[in-house]
């Protein structure tokens, strides 16, 4: 018995770092949106007690994959005696701030609930997912969400202007892996420890008015550029053709927003002439 699922990528329309905790982790406020760039997963029940994770990117096979950890935790929590085989086809770039690993892990949790016909309280599922990664709970909700605290406190937004008419994104991956930990360390070097405050009502108003020029703020962008100056050049090239450009997550992907598919394709075709060493995707909000 098996189930096939699509694991969507995400972009951060806004990412504010609010404060640093004593344990070194950072409290954040972020606005996340799932997009139509997917990894493909097939999760199967094995007749013996084991966890197998196979990926077309061999570096991501086995125990180091977050999917393995998700399966391990779920088997222990729900006392599952049978094993799981997880096959992954990667389309979401690794280390680009698009959340592919977390999305894959969320798919594994969804598959386990389906395959074993489990009825589990939502707070139990969310807690298990947050033990694997702080972005994993978001991928259980998908759509447009506000995430707070360390990223695990989620509020799904159900009313916003692009709910029925999607936004289109041009996502640029410079084929550079930026480890999240290094980006936050560089952020701490560049910034003092002042705690920031967020006005949620103001942000909701910006969303409803589609004021992306004010929404697109990523506090980690300057740290990522410091670690990888190439990102600044990529952003400057994108800004020549669209004013709505930002970095997602802790990088290294940058994205531009357009109103429709044809303008997204045109933007992709224009910038890929100057960004020959990058992978460029067109995707819509989902």
CATH topology grouping of the largest domain: Ribosomal Protein S5, domain 2
Structurally, how many domains make up the residues? 2
The low-pLDDT segments are none
The overall average pLDDT, rounded, is 95
SS summary, helix count: 10
Fraction of residues in H or I helices: 25-40%
Tell me the β content.
Answer: 25-35%
**Principal-axis shape:** globular
Number of strands: 11
Structural class: alpha+beta
Helix and strand succession?
Answer: EEEHEHHHEEEHHHEHHEEHE
Salient structural properties:
single chain; 286 residues; alpha+beta; Ribosomal Protein S5, domain 2; Alpha-Beta Plaits; four-stranded antiparallel β-sheet; globular
Secondary structure topology:
Layout: E1 2-20, E2 26-46, E3 51-55, H1 66-77, E4 83-89, H2 100-115, H3 122-132, H4 138-141, E5 144-149, E6 153-157, E7 168-173, H5 180-190, H6 200-208, H7 212-215, E8 217-218, H8 221-227, H9 230-239, E9 245-247, E10 254-258, H10 261-271, E11 279-284
Parallel strand pairs: 1-8, 3-4
Antiparallel strand pairs: 1-2, 2-4, 2-5, 5-6, 7-10, 7-11, 9-10
Helix pairs in contact: 1-2, 5-8
How would you characterize the overall build of this protein?
- There is one protein chain.
- By secondary structure, the protein is an alpha+beta fold.
- The protein has ten helices and eleven strands.
- Strands 1, 2, 3, 4, 5, 6 and 8 form a seven-stranded mixed β-sheet that branches. The chain has a four-stranded antiparallel β-sheet with strand order 9-10-7-11, with helices on one face.
- Strand 9 (245-247) and strand 10 (254-258) form a beta hairpin.
- The mean pLDDT is 95.
């Amino acid at each position: 018995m098996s189930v096939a699922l699509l694991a969507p990528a995400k972009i951060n329309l806004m990412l504010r770092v609010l404060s640093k905790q004593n344990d070194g982790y950072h409290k954040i406020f972020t606005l996340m949106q799932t997009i139509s760039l997917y990894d493909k997963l097939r999760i199967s029940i094995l007749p013996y007690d084991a966890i197998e994770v196979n990926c077309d990117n061999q570096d991501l096979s086995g125990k180091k994959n977050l999917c393995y950890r998700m399966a391990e935790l779920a088997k222990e929590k729900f006392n599952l005696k049978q094993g799981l085989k997880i096959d992954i086809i990667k389309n979401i770039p690794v280390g680009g701030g698009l959340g592919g690993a977390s999305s894959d892990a969320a798919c594994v949790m969804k598959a386990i609930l389906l395959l074993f016909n489990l009825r589990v309280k939502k707070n139990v599922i969310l807690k298990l997912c947050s033990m694997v990664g702080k972005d994993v709970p978001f991928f259980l909700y998908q759509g447009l969400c506000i995430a707070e605290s360390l990223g695990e406190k989620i509020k799904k937004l159900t009313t916003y202007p692009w709910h029925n008419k999607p936004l289109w994104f041009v996502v640029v991956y410079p084929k550079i892996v930026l480890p999240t930990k290094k980006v936050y360390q560089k952020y701490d070097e560049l910034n003092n420890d002042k705690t920031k405050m967020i006005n949620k009502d103001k942000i909701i108003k910006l969303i409803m008015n589609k004021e992306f020029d004010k929404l697109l703020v990523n506090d980690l962008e300057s740290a990522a550029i410091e670690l990888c100056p190439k990102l600044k050049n990529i952003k400057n090239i994108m800004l020549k053709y669209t004013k709505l450009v930002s970095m997602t997550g802790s990088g290294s992907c940058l994205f531009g927003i357009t109103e429709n598919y044809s303008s997204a394709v045109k933007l992709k075709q224009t910038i890929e002439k100057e960004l020959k060493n990058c992978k460029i995707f067109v995707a819509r909000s989902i």
